[in-house]
Protein 1
Amino acid sequence: AVPIEGVGFPVAQSMERPDAIVYDTEQITGDVQPLTTVKRGALSVTISSGTPRARAGGSPWAGASGAAIFSGSLLVGVLGGDPFRWELARLTAVPMTTIAGTPTLTP
């Protein structure tokens, strides 16, 4: 396993104000299991910093997708979402090798 961390804005950290819903930050720490979901071309991220409670109407992690995840100073991927077959402590991410290989991102 490879240790990771990042910061997202999940709905679990939201707070209602009279004029708006504000999404606060959540520091996300955990590990990437590099040999899991290899055929899908995804990263499997196990969260160790705490998992939100399930909620009706969607994932408590909604809003955290797009968060960059780092291992030390290396950007390893971008959070994608929570796979419906797993507990809330597991998220998926798009690896940087996939993002860097996207033709629309090359000069």
Protein 2
Amino acid sequence: PAAAPTAVGNQAVGLDLGASHGYTSMSFYLHVTAFTGTSVVFIIQTDDNSGFTPPVTYATFATVSGRTYERVRVASAPERYIRWRANSGTFSAVSFAVVASPNTTA
């Protein structure tokens, strides 16, 4: 992320996959390298508009309480835009990366 989240509700600017991206599913990889707090749950949101009004929860990672990594695969097509969001938990700092890997076959 451009800036590490420090509170629930922090989120990335949406990534535009393109109006006719053709992706049939996606995999997401979360890698947490440092964590201070009790927990945080990251989600991936998708929407047909860059304002994410209203966003749809597309994937949910397991609760994070320290350094970890996880892969989540979603078997349905995303809408045009995706972003990560620190959705719940109590923390003061987290360093992490989310990688999105689109699939064009089932």
Protein 3
Amino acid sequence: LGIALAPSWPILLLAQIGYGLSAGLLYQSSLFYSMAGSETQGEDGAAHEAFIGVGQMIGPLVVFCGAQFAQQNAALPVWLVLALMMAGFVALITVACSPHARAARR
């Protein structure tokens, strides 16, 4: 979206720098909070990195498969990614509301 809306290269460069800084802060914060207060910090950090790696693999793979198998429908890859994100959100809520997670918060 930033590429399409940037009126010039300097503004695009500033937008990309801002995006990179915000993505780095988000990554560092999520890694810190996934490991903070845990006795198994190494395992928690490894799980965090594994989830990021799986997400970076599955997202583009879904878009590629959607674009290859449904060339007449350009919106299908977008809908597939949205469905994948919703499935991830439902899985996150399910895990967060599990009895094991509730017991760990006490």
Protein 4
Amino acid sequence: WVDEKGAPIAGVTFTNFDGANVWLDCAAKPKTRWLDRRGLFCIFDYVFRQLECVRCSAAVPESNALSRKLLEQGGFEYEARLVRAAPHGEDMLIHRLFKEDCRWLTG
């Protein structure tokens, strides 16, 4: 994602694709509105239609409330806790979204 001047403001990566699952990571400049319905469609069209995954996973440090909220509002559900797997001894929370639960590919 770029702003009106072409400067990068956000990005999404897809890693560790194994045929059934892919890990999703995103980063954005603070206080930047970058993700809209069209962007969500593009992300999940790639994951579920092009890659043909049955699920998508994301990991977020427990203290990152903003990212957790974004995941949950996007339809991801909390799945597991990796104890002390994040920097500074913090827990990492795993979220997942199954293809059949993805509302961004319809209507």
